[in-house]
Amino acid sequence: MNKLTLLEQTLVQPSPLELFTPNWPGASDVTIYIKRDDEIHPVISGNKWRKLKHFIREFVDLSGLSRAEGSLPTEDSIRLISFGGGFSNHLHALGYVCYQLAIPLTVIIRGNYSSSPTPMINDLIAWNANIEYVDKATYKLRDTSEYLDTLKRRYPNAKIVPEGGSQLQALAGVSDLVTEIDNEIGTNYHTIITPVASGATMAGIVSAVEKHQHVVGIGVLKGQDYLESLVAKFLSKNNHNWHIEHEYHCGGYAKAPAYLTEFCHQFKSETGIAIEPVYSGKVFFALKKMLGQGAFVKGSTLVVVHTGGLQGSRP
């Protein structure tokens, strides 16, 4: 049995779907479920595995993972390269997967944390990732052909994973989430709510739902039109059953004002479900506000996706 099969056997799939009955204004007017993708795995949490799984399976098949046990990777080694910030849930999940499968990994991190590494970066170090810190100006070049060509010259046998794992292969993994929901409660639910940052998770959900269903994205960063463009690039022009709410970014990406942090703590205390202020906290904060505003049709059924990843709340 190969390492990938052993790793996949540790995952909880399908992830739990739980009825959610908060004592919030407007909550009794609708039926709410939480899709607990945070329960898939303690490290490869939530949508991170969904976005990576088809890519990783294909990479393992093509590469054969031929590097001998115990040998040190070189710049010519078959490897993966990806990008993220100092608290990246994507890099954390990818780092763990690569460590478990003995895949050399180079991560390009926005900002210099060499003198004060975050808990996420310390984990990557422990998992033998090669870490390169770049300034914000350089990081902005990550999707340009010139910058990617430079990386390919340095690492000729590398495969590059876009920031957040957002690539076309990710959509197939995310669409499995919708299939799991359908298998458990049928297709008579009306709305799926999910955070939006790099776009692939929302696009994967939109591509899989039926025409009578609507997908609501909660933008976790400032970027009206920009976030829409990230989602739309993965979709056909026939997908019109989605929109993004831009009122709940709470100041911008990774911004955690006191009221949001307090909400996350109170939510955990009341429900036993851990959330953090970067992604999941903003989704449930938005849900509470929107329920109070009567934003959903009475009698409708909502599914809120807990996309996991708690790096943003680690001390």
UniProtKB/TrEMBL annotation:
Catalytic residues identified in the record: S88 (nucleophile)
Cofactor annotation: pyridoxal 5'-phosphate
N6-(pyridoxal phosphate)lysine carried by residues: K48
Name by which UniProt lists this protein: Pyridoxal-phosphate dependent enzyme
Family to which the UniProt record says this protein belongs: Belongs to the ACC deaminase/D-cysteine desulfhydrase family.
InterPro entries: ACCD_DCysDesulf, TrpB-like_PALP, TrpB-like_PALP_sf
GO MF annotations in UniProt: D-cysteine desulfhydrase activity
TM annotation in the entry: none
Source organism per UniProt: Alteromonas hispanica
Tagged with keyword Transit peptide: no
